[in-house]
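Lecture 7 notes. Example A: sequence first, then its structure tokens.
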Amino acid sequence: MSKLNCIKEAIHPSCEITGLERKVLEEPNVMKIYIKSKWQYLIYNFENIKNGDIYPFFNNINGLKIIADYVIISQKKEELYIIIIELKKGRKNPKKQIFATKRLMEFILKRIEDITKQKFAIKYRFIGVSKITCKTTNKIYNKNNYTDFSGTTLNLDIYNQ
């Protein structure tokens, strides 16, 4: 069984984004992300979990149940690429949600490895969008020089841990 199939089988189907929705990820009033890939991939939104609580074993302590908007899992040869995406309206920092989701994915993938006896080679990538406004037609760069857009200012931070 492929690694992607093992993951798909293990994660509840209510979390998976399927059909045409997997081509365009949208955070209303924030942005749209169009997905293009030549490899197979899975997309999850854990906020869609059946019964509405991804962490039913935690109490409602501020910040304990945070989760990023999307997780994209793709496989290239023997490596899994886990892309964690958080889209924020305004200037709020997405970093806490991104790294909380990384911990959740580490747990999920380790449990799948234990059950299937497969070893996953994993590469994580993190995308946090923290502000979008229309301002100029000049090239704009954020503080880390990652962004090059015209017509729309987009502060895009890619986090490495």
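Example B, a different protein, same format:
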Amino acid sequence: MDRRSYLCALGTVGATTIAGCSGESGGGSSETVVDDRDTVTEDQYLTYRFGINRTADLSIETTVRDGPRLDFVLADQSEAQEFENGNRFRYYEGASDLDSAGYSTTGTVEEGDYAFIVDNSNMLEAKPPTNFEDDNARVEILIEAE
């Protein structure tokens, strides 16, 4: 049974409350939502939760510096909880990248609460090697809202 289902992104993604974001147009200032370098242990995942308080352009950049390919997924926080519970869940396909060495994307998001998942398990598409070693992945994540 497939544990995931897709949300049609249609070129837009939802966003959550970010302190300091203003609703004024023409400002062009960006707010860093996530800026992290971390190691994802084999058979584990990382979840970054954040909120945006208005419609914004969300920019996502990821790079796997060392280790196996990963799954990068943007979802609503309630759907991320379903993922963490081992259930089927919906995510924003247009803002996610499965079995990836890294990617870059930008899309418009609505006000809301979101989670960005970095998965180094066999729960989605990317599969850690079965070589009886711990295949950890060093990853960089940058998410900004403007």
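Note on Example B: Residues 1-26 have pLDDT under 50 and may be disordered. The longest strand covers residues 56-66.
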